[in-house]
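2024-03-11 09:14:02 INFO worker-7 job=invfold-0412 stage=load source=structure_tokens
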């Protein structure tokens, strides 16, 4: 391939050196030492050696596969090797390798093929671990395809954040310093050293059988021979320091549900350093995801796992006590640090994102749950709070900064309970809570969940921690938090909406028709005025009139009124679009009562639209269970909650095979909603993770026994 043609392979578009690997031994080896690769300047490899299998550990490997639509997700972990291989079939095949170590990703994208094309692990084969003496480690897989030709059109070897941006920006070529070099002969080798010079990434493709590799005008092509079977071995390697997994017996106590897939997903995502939010796209720390997962899973986790998760959040707090949302590590941290003015001395220092506004309250809630309510926490609480962060501050002191921040944010509304004093998104931001896609709040500035639920319950949690004595003599602060919590109960009223039954029926019928859904049952379910809460308030105080599942926060963390609970139960019981329930789950947003402009922001193609998130259903189920344990509710309310609970669990059971994933969507068929994977349809705004941390909470959240 000439250098002019090489630009057609977008991110492997670098000087391709033909026939570097000529001998059969070199064709099998494909490996040079990391130091030799960095020093190499000739047209031949300085040195090479055979790929060696990873040293076998005493424990069996963690290996499992999750399939969604056209995508097979293969997970592997053993010793220092941990990786996720995504194999996508269909019209636009791709391969993505995601490593928890360093949040590193390697991807290949192929030119469009026949939509019926399949891409898969070779029958009888499995993911193989690879370790090398030079520190490179990863996995190798034998792949096959029904295509006669696969043309590699682009590649990215970088941080997973770079891969996400590459897709989001429409496959725009990356900067020159992020592009890999390419060696093409009997085999293909893509490789690069990170911009800080500290790490090496490598992707190798070795044709097998009579499959061949060749340079074409379109890109590097894999072609079948007379056998008609396209087959090759692909190996992905990186050298980031591995995370430390928990051994199987260290994670769960005897109360854990017998859900093997969820246990495997959690074991893959959890390490002693942190919990990763999901794979492949969010394979690193996220504060909110860690805290919500921890809160729901706490009854089935052992103390060391709980404390590891809480500690990871506390150690990433800002100097003012803010919870970090996402971390940038490895090469992506270098890129962000280089942009800083002035750049820090250590360009590899992690960069933390503090733009969210919900994590602070979730930390207070999770900390109080563990330190004050967990049956095993008494003997651990003081020792845990005495631990120190990397800066030398005790966990207890860091937690007090977090609680002080909550009190500070609560002060204005507590003194003057007016709409303008609610908690808003940070200046210049359009996201701030878990609905953190660009249109997830429909243009709202004051999120419902933060103001109506997390602030008052977070204040209550702060008061409990102050009263406990674990943080010293803090009775005055406890009184201040208790007073503020009472005042913040008034925040809910700013979001409350009511629609007359007749108007609601008309709007449901019209919206259902636009979605090609049968409205008969939905319209019939409305026999009284519809009460619900706006998703958010806009800057001018007007509501974003979108029904939603965030009432689950109130059910799980709070003690809502009977009227509130009745309305929340009816939203579960009424079929979409009168309520939230579809045959494939509860949609997290329902814009049935909004205007056309707002409805266009919440479709089944939107990340936070009329789609189903697994963890939101679990949160609702856990909340219903807590409310049914109350002794101060009317019999009629309890009966309605019981029916809603049974109905919700029947819906969850319908799609239990999807539960470990992030989210899914639906398509209309014969007037009803039918399951569809999110991210694989034309027009989908984003992509779903096959393995999501907070979707494993069904290990703790279980259906009732009647």
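2024-03-11 09:14:09 INFO worker-7 stage=emit residues=706
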């Amino acid at each position: 391939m000439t250098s002019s043609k090489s630009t057609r392979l977008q991110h492997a578009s670098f000087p391709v050196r033909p026939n570097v690997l000529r001998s059969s031994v070199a064709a099998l080896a494909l490996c040079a030492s990391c130091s030799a690769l960095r020093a190499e300047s000739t047209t031949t490899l300085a040195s090479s050696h055979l790929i060696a299998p990873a040293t076998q550990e005493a424990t069996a490997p963690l290996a499992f596969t999750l399939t969604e639509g056209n995508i097979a997700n293969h997970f592997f972990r053993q010793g220092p090797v941990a990786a996720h291989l995504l194999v996508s079939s269909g019209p636009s095949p791709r391969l993505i390798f995601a490593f928890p170590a360093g949040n590193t990703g390697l991807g290949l994208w192929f030119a469009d093929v026949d939509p019926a094309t399949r891409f898969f692990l070779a029958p009888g084969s499995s993911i193989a671990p690879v370790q090398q003496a030079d520190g490179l480690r990863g996995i190798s897989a034998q792949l096959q395809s029904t295509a006669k030709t696969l043309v590699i059109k682009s590649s990215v070897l970088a941080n997973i954040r770079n891969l996400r941006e590459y897709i989001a920006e429409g496959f725009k070529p990356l900067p020159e310093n992020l592009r890999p070099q390419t060696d093409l002969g009997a085999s293909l080798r893509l490789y690069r050293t990170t911009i800080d010079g500290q790490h090496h990434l490598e992707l190798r493709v070795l044709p097998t059988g009579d499959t061949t590799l060749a340079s074409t005008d379109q890109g590097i092509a894999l072609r079948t021979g007379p056998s008609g079977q396209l087959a090759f071995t692909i190996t992905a390697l990186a050298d980031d320091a591995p995370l430390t997994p928990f051994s199987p017996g260290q994670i769960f106590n005897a109360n854990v549900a017998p859900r093997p897939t969820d246990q495997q997903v959690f074991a893959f995502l959890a390490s002693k350093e942190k919990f990763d939010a999901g794979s492949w796209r969010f394979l690193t720390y996220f504060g909110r995801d860690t805290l919500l997962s921890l809160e729901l899973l706490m009854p089935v986790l052992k103390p060391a796992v709980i404390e590891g998760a809480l500690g990871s959040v506390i150690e990433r707090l800002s100097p003012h006590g803010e919870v970090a949302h996402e971390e940038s590590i490895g090469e992506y941290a270098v890129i962000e640090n280089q942009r800083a003015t002035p750049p820090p001395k250590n360009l590899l220092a992690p960069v933390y994102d503090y733009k969210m506004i919900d994590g602070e309250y979730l930390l207070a809630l999770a900390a109080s749950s563990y330190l004050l309510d967990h049956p095993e926490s008494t003997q651990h609480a003081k020792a845990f709070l005495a631990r120190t962060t990397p800066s030398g501050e005790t966990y207890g002191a860091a937690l007090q900064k977090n609680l002080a921040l909550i009190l500070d944010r609560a002060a204005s509304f507590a003194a003057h309970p007016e709409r303008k004093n609610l908690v808003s998104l940070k200046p210049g931001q359009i996201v701030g809570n878990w609905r953190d896609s660009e249109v997830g709040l429909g243009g709202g500035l004051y999120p419902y969940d933060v103001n109506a639920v997390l602030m008052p319950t977070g204040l209550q949690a702060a008061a409990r921690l102050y009263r406990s004595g674990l943080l010293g003599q803090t009775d005055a602060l406890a009184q201040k938090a208790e007073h503020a919590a009472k005042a913040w109960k008034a925040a809910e009223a700013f979001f409350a909406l009511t629609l007359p039954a007749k108007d609601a029926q008309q709007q449901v019928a019209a919206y259902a028709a636009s979605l090609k859904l049968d409205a008969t049952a939905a319209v019939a379910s409305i026999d009284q005025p519809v009460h619900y809460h706006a998703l958010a308030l806009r800057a001018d105080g007007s509501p974003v009139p979108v029904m939603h599942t965030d009432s689950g926060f109130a059910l799980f963390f709070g003690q809502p009124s009977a009227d509130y609970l009745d309305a929340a139960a009816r939203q579960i019981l009424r079929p979409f679009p009168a309520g939230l329930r579809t045959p494939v789950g509860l949609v997290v947003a329902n814009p049935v009562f909004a205007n056309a402009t707002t409805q266009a922001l919440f479709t089944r193609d939107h990340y936070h639209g009329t789609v189903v998130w697994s963890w939101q259903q679990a949160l609702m189920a856990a909340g219903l269970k807590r409310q049914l344990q109350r002794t101060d509710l009317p019999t009629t309310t309890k009966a309605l909650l019981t029916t809603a609970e049974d109905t919700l669990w029947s819906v969850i059971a319908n799609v239990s095979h999807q539960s470990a994933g992030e989210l899914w969507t639906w398509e209309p068929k014969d007037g009803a909603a039918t399951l569809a994977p999110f991210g694989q349809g034309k027009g989908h705004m984003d992509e779903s993770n096959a393995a999501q941390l907070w979707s494993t909470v069904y290990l703790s959240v279980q259906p009732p026994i009647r």
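2024-03-11 09:14:09 INFO worker-7 stage=report msg="Residues 1-58 have pLDDT under 50 and may be disordered."
2024-03-11 09:14:10 INFO worker-7 job finished
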